[in-house]
Structure formats: C-alpha cells, structure tokens
C-alpha cells in the first residue's frame, strides 16, 4: 500500500499492468517470486523470456501483442515495461514500446523493483515508474 505522502495519488480508475522483458528465464522467475508475495497480481504481470536465438523483431511482436491484450482485453490504463540490462536486446525492444502516456520503461529489473511497482500500480504511470526505480535502487545495498 502506498505510504501517506502518496495516498492522494491513488485513483480507483487507474489499472496499470507490468510487462517484464528479460533474458530467459529471468522474466518468469521474477513473476513467480512476485506472485508468491502478491498472488492477486497474476492477471496484471506478463512476461517475455527472451532466448538467445530469438530475433528482436519476434520479441517486439510478442510485446506489442501483450500490450494490446492488457489495454483492450483487460482494460489496463497503462503498462510499465521492465527490462533486465540497459542496452541488451530485451531493453532495446522495451524502449521501442514507450509512448508518452500509456507505456513507460525501466531497466535493471529486480525483485525489489517489481514489488514496489506492484505496490504502486494504482497510481499514475509516471509515479509507478518512479517508485519502481526507487525500489530497485533502495533494494541494493552492502550488508555488513
């Protein structure tokens, strides 16, 4: 649940989804771990595991189909696309999906990032993206 400073940004009419595009099998593994903590998130988290031999064009086609399903079939208002490594094929594909209002992309996907995104998916998409990034950066630290 969003903290007190963001409660005014929750909108019951906002239903964002998440699409994870990552090197196989990371996307599916992240989704599986997230569903352990958030079992009700299943319909709102989609994945594409990109095998080494898959062309970017095939991955892009799959991603566009999933975005269409989220928007048309599930009634989602926006989608946060997460990729694993900046500059790699999954991220390059994800960047091609970005538009000004309905799709945002973040790189460096991790479980803390995904947890934070799920927690904030009923906020404006830009807020959700910001919170996902902060979850990823705050979830990585040296332990002594």
Features:
144 residues; alpha/beta; Rossmann fold; globular
Can you describe what's shown?
The protein is an alpha/beta fold. The chain has one domain: Rossmann fold (3-Layer(aba) Sandwich). It contains 5 helices and 4 strands. Helix 2 crosses helix 3.
In short:
With 144 residues, the chain is of the alpha/beta class. The protein has helices at 26-37, 56-73, 89-95, 111-119, 125-138, and strands spanning 16-23, 45-50, 78-83, 103-107. The N and C termini lie far apart (29 Å).
Q: What does the main sheet amount to?
A: 4 strands, parallel
Total count of helical runs of at least 4 residues: 5
Unreliable stretches: none
- SSE topology string: EHEHEHEHH
Q: How many domains in all?
A: 1
- Report the radius of gyration as a whole number of Å: 14 Å
Order of neighbouring strands in the sheet with most strands? 2-1-3-4
Q: Overall mean pLDDT score?
A: 92
CATH first level: Alpha Beta
Strands, total number: 4
Portion of residues within helices: 40-55%
CATH superfamily descriptor: Phosphotransferase system, mannose-type IIA component
Shape: globular
Structural class, judged by helices and strands?
Answer: alpha/beta
How much of the polypeptide forms β-strand, as a percent range? Answer: 15-25%
Q: Termini separation (Å)?
A: 29 Å
CATH topology: Rossmann fold
List the helices and strands and how they pair.
Blueprint: E1 16-23, H1 26-37, E2 45-50, H2 56-73, E3 78-83, H3 89-95, E4 103-107, H4 111-119, H5 125-138
Parallel strand pairs: 1-2, 1-3, 3-4
Helix pairs in contact: 2-3, 4-5
């Amino acid at each position: 649940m969003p903290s007190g400073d963001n409660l005014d940004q929750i909108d019951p009419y906002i239903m964002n989804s998440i699409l994870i595009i990552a090197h196989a099998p990371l996307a599916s593994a992240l989704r599986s771990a997230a569903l352990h903590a958030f079992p009700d998130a299943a319909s709102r988290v989609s994945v594409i595991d990109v095998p080494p031999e898959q062309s970017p064009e095939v991955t892009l086609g799959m991603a566009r189909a999933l975005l269409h399903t989220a928007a048309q079939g599930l009634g989602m208002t926006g989608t946060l696309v997460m990729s694993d490594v900046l500059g790699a094929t999954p991220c390059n594909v994800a960047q091609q999906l970005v538009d000004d209002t309905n799709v945002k992309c973040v790189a460096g996907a991790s479980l803390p990032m995904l947890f934070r995104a799920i927690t904030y998916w009923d906020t404006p998409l830009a807020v959700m993206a910001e919170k996902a990034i902060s979850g990823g950066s705050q979830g990585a630290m040296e332990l002594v």
